[in-house]
UniProtKB/TrEMBL annotation:
Protein name, as recorded: Mannitol-1-phosphate 5-dehydrogenase
Pfam families reported in the protein's UniProt record: Mannitol_dh (PF01232), Mannitol_dh_C (PF08125)
Family stated for the protein in its record: Belongs to the mannitol dehydrogenase family.
Domain Mannitol dehydrogenase C-terminal residues, every copy: 203-380
InterPro entries: 6-PGluconate_DH-like_C_sf, 6PGD_dom2, Mannitol_1_phos_5_DH, Mannitol_DH, Mannitol_DH_C, Mannitol_DH_N, NAD(P)-bd_dom_sf
Reaction(s) the record says it catalyses: D-mannitol 1-phosphate + NAD(+) = beta-D-fructose 6-phosphate + NADH + H(+)
UniProt keywords, alphabetically: NAD, Oxidoreductase
Ranges of residues in domain Mannitol dehydrogenase N-terminal: 2-196
One term of GO molecular function: mannitol-1-phosphate 5-dehydrogenase activity
Encoding gene (name): mtlD
Amino acid sequence: MLAVHFGAGNIGRGFIGNLLFQSGYQTVFVDVNQEIVDLLNEKNQYTVVLADKSQEELQIRNVSAVNSGTDPDQVIELIANADLVTAAVGPNILPFIAGSIAEGLRKRIAANDAPLNIIACENMIGGSTLLKEKVYEKLEESEKQLFDSRFGFPDAAVDRIVPNQSNEDKLMVKVEPFYEWAVDETKIIGSRPEVEGITYVEDLKPYIERKLFTVNTGHAAAAYIGYQAGMRTIDEAMKIKELQELIQQTLQETGRMLISKYAFEPEEHQKYIEKIVNRFVNPYITDEVTRVGRSPIRKLGPADRLVSPAVQYLQLTGDVPVSLTRVIASAFLYDYKEDPDAVAIQEAIYEKGIERAIEQFTGIEAGSILSETVLDHYHQLKSGITIK
Ligand SMILES: NC(=O)C1=CN([C@@H]2O[C@H](COP(=O)(O)OP(=O)(O)OC[C@H]3O[C@@H](n4cnc5c(N)ncnc54)[C@H](O)[C@@H]3O)[C@@H](O)[C@H]2O)C=CC1
Ligand SMILES: O=P(O)(O)OC[C@H]1O[C@](O)(CO)[C@@H](O)[C@@H]1O
């Protein structure tokens, strides 16, 4: 069985590649990083290390790679013959891989009538749906019906913390032992890809919202508030008692919203929160706040981990979320110079003021109660009332 995976980065090698190998696939990674492509083709294997007391090493074999920048025809050929296509490149990169996927699917249609599923494994709601939209933008109107009947783009929720790597062995990836991969089975075309570790679900929305608004909201809170307090890593940040408390309060807010929306069992949800917070304090993982906080424009978007739960909390409970708005404010103070999103946000604040910047990046209307609350937190945090 042939799997083509776009993005041989942290989650690509450390999670998706790992499960594909365990499920019997031959995996070809598609990436634009020539060094990683060369190494994968030279070794045809790499090591995944579990970040816990055991430090267990898994050998991931049957892998190779192609550089889509220099060898686009090979990528097209691979897609034409694949049994499964997956991607973990980042939401902003999905439009750039759509062209070769469209071409590959065209070539496949000309050669055989086997169905194919394409699963984007990004931290976002509707990642595969977005990829499908971008692929379909490359099609003629007349092609779309046949594509609909042959190719599935099931959305997914993926969860495993894989920090940036600093190993001497450039292919080695250190990952937390925990993982979860839920896939929307209603959008599968043909038979379900048999991948060890995938949970097929009929309704993905509760899974993806629970995950994005707990793991990723909590993590973003630790990153932005931790950065504000001068911390370098998430585990350092988590040692600050007040920060842990703020994360707990933030996750109580997202929890209240999720429980009210999906009728989750409160005790079960509380256990889920505790488990997530424990993952953040894993002493075997060094995860920089600047990785977890990366791309703040994306993270402040209306459908993402901070603003969406805040807006839904207000709508569902009638109360203003005190902690979520504080985390949103701290994201507006995130001024890490190496992050182009952070720089753009700071420039927008400088040029048009914080209130307009909040509206621009979050879609929260200026003058609304949410905007006013974020604004209050922003001014307090800026005047030095920090967590430390
Ligand atoms: N790292 C993690 O723990 C998790 C990450 N994710 C999601 O997975 C996605 C990837 O994240 P990471 O693996 O952390 O990032 P990463 O930066 O380690 O990996 C991304 C890879 O995509 C490659 N890439 C960039 N442009 C490309 C293109 N045009 N074609 C093919 N490959 C291209 C990069 O060279 C890199 O190897 C993101 O959406 C992230 O939110 C989801 C869950 C966990
Ligand atoms: O990958 P993103 O969306 O930039 O956000 C980083 C987040 O993703 C993860 O890497 C994995 O879920 C978390 O560590 C963190 O919450």
